Amino acid sequence: MSSLNTPAILLRRIEYGDYDLIVTLFTPQGGKTSAIAKSAKKSVKRFSGILEPFSRLDVVLAKGRGKGLPVLQEASLEEPFFKIREDIVKTAYASYWSELVYLWMAEGEPLEPLYQLILHVLAELNRGGTPVEVLSILFQMRFLSLAGFRPNFDHCHTCKKNLDQIRDAVVVSDPARGGIACPTCMGSSNDRPRISKGTLKQLNWTDTGDLERAARVRFTAAAIAEGLTFLESFVPFHIGKSPKSLRVLRTVRKELEKQVFRFTC
Ligand SMILES: [Zn+2]
Prior knowledge:
Layout: E1 2-16, E2 20-27, E3 31-37, H1 44-47, E4 56-63, E5 71-79, H2 82-85, H3 88-104, H4 112-127, H5 132-147, E6 152-156, E7 170-174, E8 179-181, H6 183-186, E9 194-196, H7 197-205, H8 211-214, H9 221-239, H10 244-264
Parallel strand pairs: 6-8
Antiparallel strand pairs: 1-2, 1-4, 2-3, 4-5, 7-8, 7-9
The protein binds zinc ion (ZN).
């Protein structure tokens, strides 16, 4: 039996039998790691209030020789990020980011920059200093780069005209071809999301330099809407899966818009 002591972010937990939980952790050195928390549902003392989604934990994992899951032996709460879980909008965004990591990562393959990225956006989301939509743009842009799917915003994929040479102010999103097309090449008979060249440049800025500075890019409300529409179709397309949490996020956002509308009318 070998044991590993590591920081971890709790991506997901599911019930297993009457007493146990299976938790999926994201660790800097071990990547996505599932483990069984025995008696976690029954024992009030051991893991009570600790195995909460999005929390930053320190854990001890024990691995036997067989093929079974590692056993979560100890867990201590280092960053509870409880302000995320008490806010339905923040919870919806954090669930989406966590599910992207969960769906895309293979078990046991480390990717420390992605660990640092999600830790950063969760901490910022909890702190509340940056608009949640900007954090989501930042997370998705950098996630795409780390996953090797960075969109090509520099030129039309068909005629190869640079963004600055395209005369239209708005271009067409084309996830299947990995980027954008000019309206001339794409034609007018498609319903793909359109995005302004100005927004594309801002999306690029969120993927350069340090995270703190990148989160200070100032987006207009229209640019945020365009950026989110673009990324929330681009990212699921490239990981080849539809995150359930994205449907929830869209519902939560719609409800919020309705409330704002009612309040202002
Ligand atoms: Zn073109």
